Task: inverse folding
């Protein structure tokens, strides 16, 4: 049974990297994007997911899921983040999710999606598009004469 | 637009980060006589959290059975509790239905079906809460059900 208080997603973004300043907790998002280009696939890339939530109170098991929209199968294992906020403080009823992911492998061009869930409740999604520019495969580049 | 480095897929997935309280910005200059010198101790809003990886790569991500809609994506409306939906997979995509009020949403993917259902629900809520609308018995029952789940933000 999901938590009785449902979080509200104010923003959800994908970028190259998120850095959090220690002390102030301020996040810096670098290189916000929503599509990827590569000469050939598969590719391996680094990216980060940011979400800003309000109305967060109680215990949640948040889940970030990355799926290919071609067949709706997961591209990476689900990322689970337990969170426990006993009581909202006035003016501080928000939380920010910042996840850096290194080594995601995308095997083919197409549409992909990050989905954010709180327990069994769907919250939000953000879509990425991977495009091929039709370049020379990596193996051929390595084997080509200098 | 991001450009990806073309590499053979050999490195393991690394995931790090988590939830934290909102960032605190810096203030604007203030006249000295207006400043009350008070230093507050740093109090983390939430305990340290950690990331767990679960499930397998390539799992079918389409839900079946009961799932919950947890957000309406409308700044004017607040969801009081998650809405239970029955998910079914059809040839054309995903169908989500809320039997209590006989409302449904569909889409080619799970996310699209949730978006379609949320859009239908927002329109229904707005229509039933018009000031000059006259409701029959059944629509009044639907409005009462919606009011258990949704409220307008002040």
Result:
């Amino acid at each position: 049974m999901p938590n009785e208080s449902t979080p509200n997603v104010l923003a959800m973004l994908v970028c190259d990297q998120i850095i959090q300043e220690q002390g102030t907790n301020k996040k810096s998002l670098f290189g916000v994007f929503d599509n990827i280009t590569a000469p050939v696939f598969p590719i391996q890339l680094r990216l980060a997911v940011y979400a800003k939530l309000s109305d967060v109170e109680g215990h949640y098991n948040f889940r970030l899921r990355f799926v290919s929209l071609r067949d709706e199968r997961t591209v990476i294992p689900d990322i689970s983040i337990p969170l426990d906020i006993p009581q909202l403080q006035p003016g501080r009823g928000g939380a920010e999710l910042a996840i850096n992911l290194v080594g995601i492998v995308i095997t083919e061009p197409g549409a992909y999606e990050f989905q954010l869930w709180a327990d069994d409740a769907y919250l939000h999604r953000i879509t990425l598009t991977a495009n091929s520019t039709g370049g020379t495969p990596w193996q051929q580049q390595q084997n080509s004469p200098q | 637009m991001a450009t990806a480095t073309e590499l053979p897929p050999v490195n393991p997935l690394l995931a790090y980060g988590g939830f934290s309280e909102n960032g605190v910005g810096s203030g604007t200059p203030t006249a000295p006589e207006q400043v009350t010198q008070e230093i507050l101790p740093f109090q983390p809003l939430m305990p340290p959290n950690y990331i767990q990886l679960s499930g397998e790569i390539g799992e079918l991500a389409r839900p079946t059975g009961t799932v919950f809609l947890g957000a309406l994506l409308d700044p004017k409306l607040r969801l009081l509790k998650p809405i239970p939906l029955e998910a079914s997979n059809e040839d054309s995509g995903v169908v989500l239905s809320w039997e209590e009020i006989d409302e449904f949403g569909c889409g080619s993917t799970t996310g699209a079906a949730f978006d379609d259902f949320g859009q239908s629900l927002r329109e229904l809520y707005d229509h039933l809460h018009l000031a000059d609308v006259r409701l029959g018995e059944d629509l009044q029952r639907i409005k009462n059900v919606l009011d258990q789940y949704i409220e307008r933000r002040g």
